[in-house]
Amino acid sequence: MSIIDHVNLPVSDLDRSRRFYEIVLEPLGYRFLMQDGQAAGFGIEDWNFGIVETRAPFPAMHIAFKAATPEQVQRFYEIALQAGARSNGAPGLRPQYDSAYFAAFVLDPDGHNIEAVYRGR
Questions:
Q1: What span, in angstroms and rounded, lies between the C-alpha atoms of 77 and 80?
Q2: Fewer beta carbons below 10 Å: N end or C end of the chain?
Q3: Per-position DSSP letters for 75-108, written without gaps between them
Q4: H-run or E-run covering 43
Q5: Domains of the chain, with CATH numbers?
């Protein structure tokens, strides 16, 4: 169980980022749920991850999305690169975090470090 109910990430262009996240979150089972003014929400049933159009500058942030399998991590990475993300770490084990920590990292259109992680549990 997660201790966070939801988080919102600042973005400079809501439409661009909404399209990006609709594409890259799909392999993880997450989908666009709704838009509320200058914010868009994603999740499975509830708004757990959101993007909010914010005037720059804002700090680059890091967020990690749960994956159910290593294959989901791989697919997330491939689709993110096709959608215009920049690689920030190809899919693979990260034993420095945990012996079963399998993750991939990309930089989104605003430079946020977006991760998909499977913890082998």
A1: 5
A2: N
A3: HHHHHHHHTT-EEEEEEEE-TTT-TT-EEEEEE-
A4: strand 39-43
A5: 7-118 (3.10.180.10)
Are the beta carbons of 78 and 23 closer than 8 angstroms?
no
Question: What is the pTM for the complete model shown?
Answer: 0.92
d(CA 71, CA 73): 5
Angle at which helix 14-25 crosses helix 70-82, to 10 degrees, equals: 150
Taking the C-alpha atoms of residue 65 and residue 11, their distance in angstroms, rounded to an integer, is: 17
Q: Can you tell me the distance from the alpha carbon of 29 to that of 75, in angstroms, rounded to the nearest whole number?
A: 11
Q: Enter the tokens of residue 12.
A: 């400079």
Type of residue numbered 32 = F
User: What pLDDT digit, counting tens, does each position of 26-37 carry?
Assistant: 999 999 999 999
